Amino acid sequence: MIEILSPTELARARETGALVGHILQTLKSRTTVGTNLLDLDRWTQAMITEAGAVSCYVDYEPSFGRGPFGHYICTSVNDAVLHGLPRDYQLADGDLLTLDLAVSRRDVASDAAISFIVGDSQPSESVALIRATERALAAGIGAAGPGARIGDISHAIGSVLTAAGYAINTEFGGHGIGSTMHQDPHVANTGRPGRGYTLRPGLLLALEPWVMVDTASLVTDADGWTLRSATGCRTAHSEHTIAITDDGADVLTLSDPAYSPT
């Protein structure tokens, strides 16, 4: 299913996106050496509830997971890159943490992810990973607009990741989003320009480049959810929800310092 949102629905999508961006940046500011992943999950639950929103993850039970997910945010550390199930782990200096959050409010969902390094250590390999995903995300957003095709976005993302020296996994990528978290069209992190669905104003997409240092292969934890690099190398993941407009693409999940979840 591919949804095209009305102007009224798009206004609600902007509100949900702002909430997601606010929660992620609040969590980042509160995360220090010693922070427990389960605390991050509890803080997320409290902020979602306070905003009158609903988690897209608690009851999430896709075919590839051992569902339901049962938590409010994905917390992926170091070699974990996707669907990191919160667990009793205290973050250490130099850990690379990815927070991935999807929330629904007033019947419109929004999805975003950030990767950052905890503490004072800044391992160069981790910094390079994060920056590559951020550049690729920016390139994908830049390629989006009315009349462009999904392949244009995929090609823009993949070109940046490949130029940075990373292999690209095509099992998981970006996706349409609207009244539900995951919809068509699928947005692979590499592809051929000029191919695929033609973008229209009112379409929402969640773009999410992610990479691993030296592999494109994933393994699944015993928890049935957390996806890790097959070699144990570090990983990073960046994501925004965007809206296709008459003029281009608007990023809905940016953090606004003046935002108030009312």
TrEMBL record:
UniProt entry keywords in alphabetical sequence: Aminopeptidase, Hydrolase, Metal-binding, Protease
Residues noted as binding a divalent metal cation 2 in the record, renumbered to the chain: D111, H175, E208, E239
Assembly and interaction partners: Monomer.
Protein known as: Methionine aminopeptidase
E.C. designation(s): 3.4.11.18
The keyword Cell inner membrane belongs to this UniProt entry's keyword annotation: no
Gene: map
Lineage of source species: Bacteria, Bacillati, Actinomycetota, Actinomycetes, Kineosporiales
NCBIfam families the UniProt entry points to: met_pdase_I
Coiled coil: none
Broadest EC class assigned to this enzyme: hydrolase
GO molecular function: initiator methionyl aminopeptidase activity
Family, as annotated: Belongs to the peptidase M24A family. Methionine aminopeptidase type 1 subfamily.
Free-text function comment from the UniProt entry: Removes the N-terminal methionine from nascent proteins. The N-terminal methionine is often cleaved when the second residue in the primary sequence is small and uncharged (Met-Ala-, Cys, Gly, Pro, Ser, Thr, or Val). Requires deformylation of the N(alpha)-formylated initiator methionine before it can be hydrolyzed.
Species: Angustibacter luteus
